[in-house]
């Protein structure tokens, strides 16, 4: 089976590599000529564990190809996936210009039945707009070529995307006909053989499922952060509370960790888009609006704790461990670290940062406004305080004796609650975390 995937960013490239690993002949398409040239040379544009080996293996096997021209492959493929970006507009809505441009190119060039599947995260009703654009382009050509659209939202976690694709909790597919279902069943046959859940539904429900899933996870995070902040005020321990409620089978223990807020390419954007969709339809998403409000406030909690501990931050040296919004990625989009660092710089603090993989991304975003350490120990030399913002594995068991000797001060603010308060107190640190 031959397919094309338009957009060679995170979703498109991971999907393309994984489909090709299953034996599908995949062509990844992107208008960025430099990106395609790099991919042909084996240079991967994103950091995702295991992706470089997967891409190289399937490219060498002749199952994974790269091009800048969707037109050149349309006659050969049965399915085209649209995996282009849907960045937020100023009003929070999803910007569909790239999605609709794919539809426009599709309509201008198809000559036989082809299924266009949206993998990008798009608002409910986008499929109607896509079909309209394709029909308009076919009408301009005076052609009556059969086509269908479908929705196949992704549920990949950055840092574990390959595992998520190969062993999914579920595959959600929105279709409009039995024939489209058969095409998608054939494509996802390896998953059906392994008894993974492939759930077929109407397109509108598939589009909504993606937003509802991410908004629910974001809700759990903001809920626990709200509880954590109250725990501090009343003398409770949020870690104990989490264990207490997480043991309830109706609740479970996933995404119940208090911290300094969520970030990344999905949760912030999708929460905003769902709020906007509600407003477009005359409905206020009050719970989701509160989720966003709590999260934006939570991103500043580490800065507030540093200020409470140190007083005037002007001239203070603050070490920051962790820049990416989560471990196992270099993605800093909407990361709490950006909020904390901006607030520290505005307060006159001197900031030195370290992250195992996101240093180049930080340089791209912040330039020389911060200092860059060569490792986690270099970052804390003569520091008045250490702020831990991303729970990378290498931060979990550092040599505290080395850190205590290297630091000028003794303040540690743990934005992810991964350290033992009693251990650090015995070593002479002033330890602050979230919800205790």
How would you describe this protein?
The protein contains 18 helices and 14 strands. With about 425 residues, it is of the alpha/beta class. It starts with a strand and ends with a strand. The mean pLDDT is about 95. Helix 1 links the parallel strand 1 (about 1-5) and strand 2. The strands form 3 sheets. Strands 3-2-1-4-5-6 form a 6-stranded parallel beta sheet, sandwiched between helices. Helix 4 (about 95-110) packs parallel to helix 5 and helix 9 (about 205-235) crosses helix 12. About 45% of the residues lie in helices and about 15% in strands. The protein folds into 3 domains: about 1-200, Rossmann fold (3-Layer(aba) Sandwich), CATH 3.40.50; about 210-295, Rossmann fold (3-Layer(aba) Sandwich); about 300-430, Rossmann fold, CATH 3.40.50.720.
Give a brief rundown of this model:
The protein is α/β, with parallel strands linked by helices and about 425 residues long. The protein has helices at about 10-20, 35-40, 50-60, 95-110, 125-140, 160-165, 180-185, 190-195, 205-235, 240-245, 265-280, 285-300, 300-310, 335-345, 360-365, 375-380, 400-405, 420-425; strands at about 1-5, 25-30, 65, 80, 115-120, 145-150, 170-175, 200, 315-320, 350-355, 370, 385-390, 410-415, 430.
């Amino acid at each position: 089976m031959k397919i094309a995937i338009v957009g060679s960013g995170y979703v498109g490239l991971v999907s393309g590599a994984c489909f090709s690993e299953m034996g599908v002949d995949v062509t990844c398409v992107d208008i960025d000529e430099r990106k395609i040239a790099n991919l042909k040379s084996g240079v991967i544009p994103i950091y995702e564990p295991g992706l470089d080996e997967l891409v190289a293996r399937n490219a060498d096997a002749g199952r994974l190809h790269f091009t800048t021209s969707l037109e050149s492959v349309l006659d050969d493929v049965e399915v085209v996936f649209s995996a282009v970006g849907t960045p937020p507009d100023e009003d929070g809505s999803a910007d569909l210009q790239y999605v609709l441009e794919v539809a426009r190119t599709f309509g201008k060039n198809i000559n036989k039945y082809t299924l266009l599947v949206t993998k990008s995260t798009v608002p409910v009703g986008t499929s109607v707009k896509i079909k309209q654009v394709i029909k308009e382009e076919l009408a301009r050509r005076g052609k009556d070529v059969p086509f269908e659209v479908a929705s196949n939202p992704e549920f990949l976690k950055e840092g574990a995307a390959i595992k998520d694709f190969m062993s999914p909790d579920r595959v959600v597919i929105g279709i409009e006909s039995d024939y489209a279902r058969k095409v998608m069943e054939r494509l996802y046959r390896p998953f059906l053989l392994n008894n993974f859940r492939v759930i077929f539904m109407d397109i509108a429900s598939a589009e909504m499922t993606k937003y509802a899933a991410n908004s629910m996870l974001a809700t759990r995070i903001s809920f626990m952060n709200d509880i954590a902040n109250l725990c501090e005020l009343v003398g409770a321990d949020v870690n104990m509370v989490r264990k207490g409620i997480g043991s309830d089978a109706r609740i479970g223990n996933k995404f119940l960790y208090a911290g300094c807020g969520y970030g990344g390419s999905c949760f912030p954007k999708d929460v905003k888009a769902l709020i906007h969709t509600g407003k477009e339809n005359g409905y206020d998403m009050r719970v989701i609006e509160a989720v966003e409000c709590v999260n934006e406030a939570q991103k500043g909690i580490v800065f507030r704790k540093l200020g409470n501990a140190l007083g005037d931050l002007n001239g203070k040296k603050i070490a920051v461990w962790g820049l990416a919004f989560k471990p196992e990625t270099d993605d800093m989009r909407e990361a709490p670290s950006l909020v904390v660092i901006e607030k520290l710089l505005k307060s006159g603090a001197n900031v030195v940062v370290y992250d195992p993989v996101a240093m180049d991304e930080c340089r791209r975003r912040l330039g020389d406004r911060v200092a860059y350490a060569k490792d986690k120990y270099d970052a804390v030399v003569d520091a008045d305080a250490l702020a831990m913002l991303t729970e990378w594995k290498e931060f979990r068991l550092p040599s505290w004796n080395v850190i205590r000797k290297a630091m000028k001060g003794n303040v540690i603010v743990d934005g992810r609650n991964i350290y033992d308060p009693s251990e650090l107190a015995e070593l002479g640190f002033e330890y602050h975390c979230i919800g205790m």
